Amino acid sequence: MGRRRTVTSVQIAREAGVAQSTVSRVLNGGSVSEETRRRVLDVVAKYDFQPSQAARSLVGTRSGLIGVVIRDLTNPFYPVMVKAVERVLHQQGLRLSLVTDVMTPEEGLALLRREGVDGVVFTSAVQDDPLAHRMLKHDIPVVLCHRTLEDFPADQVEADNATAGRLAADHLLSLGHRHVGMVCGSAGASTAQQRGAAFRDRLRAHGDVTLTEVDGDYDYATAYGAVRTLLSGDRRPTALFCHNDIMAYAALNAAAAAGVRVPDELSVVGCDDVPLSAWERIDLTTVRQPLERIAQVGVELLVQRLDEPDLPPRREVLPVEFVERSTTAPASRI
Amino acid sequence: MGRRRTVTSVQIAREAGVAQSTVSRVLNGGSVSEETRRRVLDVVAKYDFQPSQAARSLVGTRSGLIGVVIRDLTNPFYPVMVKAVERVLHQQGLRLSLVTDVMTPEEGLALLRREGVDGVVFTSAVQDDPLAHRMLKHDIPVVLCHRTLEDFPADQVEADNATAGRLAADHLLSLGHRHVGMVCGSAGASTAQQRGAAFRDRLRAHGDVTLTEVDGDYDYATAYGAVRTLLSGDRRPTALFCHNDIMAYAALNAAAAAGVRVPDELSVVGCDDVPLSAWERIDLTTVRQPLERIAQVGVELLVQRLDEPDLPPRREVLPVEFVERSTTAPASRI
DNA sequence: CTGAAAGCGCTTACAG
DNA sequence: CTGAAAGCGCTTACAG
């Protein structure tokens, strides 16, 4: 109880025999004589003085805090994303304020505003995203990473999801699959829309292919259930395109539970290429998304915007890459 | 550029026709007449006013921020831990400030001090942990979750790791394994020490068993390499106890890469029981650690200590549970 | 119950 | 180059 005794710049100043404003100038790179600087820094070092971030952001124009909005941290996709974002932020001297699904969007918005974040990185925006629109309304810079929104006046970075869907379709078609299933991501997610549309178009253009779509909501349990149902039906597909890796893992596991052999009886293609996918026990054929790059470009766009708020909104689309592993095989094997 | 125009309590006060201190009282539950309260809350609602956290923590005695120190977020163990901690903190109205391996311990310490965290949750302390000791020296309350330290005057919560090691040993012994390998966690980690010692003791007590130990450093890549080497040697063990699940996955994958069949040629036991372990493609025999409980008890201990800093340090040990799945089998099968 | 005032620890013009 | 002073947006005694 009572406040912890912390050294302040006033005490540093007193001990160094200078004004408090001089300490501030030394720490923030103002013009100070070499001797004064040395004297102050000695005292700073002696106490390992750290200026209060609260005081700084109260008086300054920046808090140095960036909100990072994700969904479920236990979905293997997000740790990779958060880590990449965190790394870039840290290089820029910025701190991260995490908003996840342990709170409601309203609570998240309130927290981010109270904390006075300089900007927000969204990684899982959905159409009509309540949080994203309201941040913008509050005049807080926003960048959409990974998932994007139509007619949303903010910077956006995404993978070339249309190509991802097309590559997946071409691969399965070339293996001779003619009865195909698609495990879709959340309806409001741009990634699901783009990947799904491109995949669908490609099959349609090819002709002579049956496509069955089920909803996996980008969620392991949902996808697991959907695939089990799909596999127990009488018109079982010979191949599955899943809109992300986590749902592909669900498909792999559901197939195992149903006694359906992969890839002999069922081919599975994912999307993202999370590190797990390269494990021998998984070894998932998938489309790699440049996650590190997306995070890096996203944070860079945001940081630029902090300096120039009136820049027109920019959109970056980053290339994907097909990664063939062992969960796909020719349809003829059956 | 220029500060964003944010509504402040002064403006709320002006519009409600009261003093600024009255707004503060309404928001913090001071004594205010029903009518005044209503008038203020109307204006607060109109602007969706959020009091500045920076100002609050500058003047108040608490920042409401709790540091959470982990290592690598992409190790599947930590997202589960962080999520559990975050959930409990959020229930308590506290915010989390994440420190990971994207920064050095020194940088982490500096950040946590600048931010004025009320306390810190450590999830991966090691003996002589530089950060943990220095936090305490700076008089900041600390709780050690999951991993603990000898002679460290702070609250600590951990699983019953000795029992975990014993259960793993008993299981493998009862299956008839007499040439056993152990993939150890980081030398400085209490979990590795306790699990390792109990496992070792049990084998020694049984007698007639060869134990080969390798270092996996609680790291996927390190464990993978160590197991590959172990499996290519001439005295290949028939069973492996890995000090955590992530290293067990590495063992499973290394075995697959080496063409060693699990469980027929090699039994593998992990420790932790992360959600991944239940996947059909993994289906790992392991010892479950009550992660949610550890997080919850840890945060509770910390929150109590914020109110009563002079409480003697407490230590909680939570029970583990053996989970038999399909990565273990009798040694006689070979 | 309510208001005026002090003060938290800084940054940033403003003088000198 | 350096110091004195204002002020960021709150909470918390202190009067009334």
Offer a concise description of the structure.
2 copies of one chain form a homodimer. Chain A has 12 helices and 12 strands.
Explain how this protein is built.
The structure is a homodimer of 334-residue chains. With 334 residues, chain A is an alpha/beta fold. Chain A folds into three domains: 9-51, 434 Repressor (Amino-terminal Domain), CATH 1.10.260.40; 65-159 and 291-319, Rossmann fold; 161-289 and 322-333, Response regulator (Rossmann fold). Helix content of chain A is 44%, strand content 16%. Chain A contains twelve helices and twelve strands. Chain A has helices at 9-16, 20-28, 34-47, 53-59, 77-91, 105-115, 130-137, 161-174, 190-206, 220-232, 245-258, 291-307, and strands at 65-69, 95-99, 119-122, 142-145, 155-159, 179-184, 210-215, 239-242, 267-269, 286-288, 315-318, 321-323. In chain A, the strands form three sheets. In chain A, strands 2-1-3-4-5-11 form a six-stranded parallel sheet, sandwiched between helices. In chain A, helix 6 (105-115) runs parallel beside helix 7 (130-137) and helix 8 (161-174) packs parallel to helix 9 (190-206). Chain A is elongated, with a radius of gyration of 25 Å. The N and C termini of chain A lie far apart (72 Å). Chain A binds a DNA duplex (16 and 16 nucleotides) through residues 3, 6, 8-10, 18-25, 28, 30-33, 36, 51-52, 54-61. Chains A, B: Keywords: DNA-binding, Transcription, Transcription regulation. Chains A, B: This is LacI family transcriptional regulator. Chains A, B: Residues 7-60 form the HTH lacI-type domain.
